[in-house]
Amino acid sequence: MQTIIDYFSTIPSAHRSLILVGGITIFWLIENAYPLFQFQYRRWHHAGINIFFTLTTIIVNFCLAFILLQVADWSYQNNFGILQWLPKMPIGLYALIGLLLLDLIGAYLVHLVEHKVKVLWRFHLIHHTDTWIDTTSANRHHPGESVIRFVFTTLGVVVVGSPMWLVFLYQTLSVVATQFNHANIALPKKVDVFLSYFIVSPDMHKVHHHYVMPYTDSNYGNIFSVWDRLFGTFMILPREEIVFGVDTHMQPEEHNDLKNLLKIPFQKKK
């Protein structure tokens, strides 16, 4: 465990970028060989749009990263946050509790709030307009949403009192988890169900991308599935019945045009 702590305490930016690109590449190859859905679409055009949003997400987080560093350092220096107040425990348990709490605030809570607050939903809507969910869809976030999610991640670091190595570990696991649960892959159903008791599985998250309510407002988790089960937002829908997208933006000119996607938060259409 100490090796992991040492690595994520000083993880180079190049390594973090390599993990992101490597994850997309691996899941891209797997979903190409064993796809869940046989999409009829211009794959590279679709990927190009989603990769653009991935790059803007990286830029936003890179530009604001110094805030996370300052906040994590402040929490440690002032003995502030849940982890700082807990009794001494094995480092593995300490890391697990920290990851669960960061996932609660930095993924589940912000996701839930984005669905419930109209002005935030306008930014998150871009993610839901995708009618061909695959691993490139994972970071299809409007730059405005990237800022919103960064604010909640920062809030999580303060509340949890997380050291920076744990923040980097969480962000790395979060990137891989979202690439995994968005990937257009078909795990054996029993395996998917088993995984969904612990982590967000592909079938579990794809329910969230079904185009109509109430399924759109369910399964908000990213890494751990416990929060959806605990707070009553867990839902099941057979994979054969899932239709991707959102019912207000089902036309190609609405969901498959980069310029329009950037404008959606500022349009009057609901």
Q: How does this model look, in words?
A:
The chain is mainly alpha-helical and 270 residues long. Helices cover 64% and strands 0% of the residues. The chain is built from 13 helices and no strands. It has helices at residues 2-9, 13-33, 43-77, 82-85, 91-116, 118-128, 143-160, 164-182, 189-195, 202-208, 226-231, 252-255, 258-263. Helix 3 (43-77) runs parallel beside helix 7, helix 5 crosses helix 7 (143-160) and helix 5 crosses helix 8. The protein is globular. The mean pLDDT is 93.
Brief description of this entry?
The protein is mainly α.
Radius of gyration: 18 Å
Net shape: globular
Number of helices: 13
Number of strands: 0
Euclidean distance between termini CA atoms: 48 Å
Alpha-beta content class: mainly alpha
What's the rounded overall pLDDT mean? 93
The major sheet is characterized as: none
What is the strand content?
under 5%
What is the helix/strand order? Answer: HHHHHHHHHHHHH
Give start-end ranges of low-pLDDT stretches: none
Percent helix: 55-70%
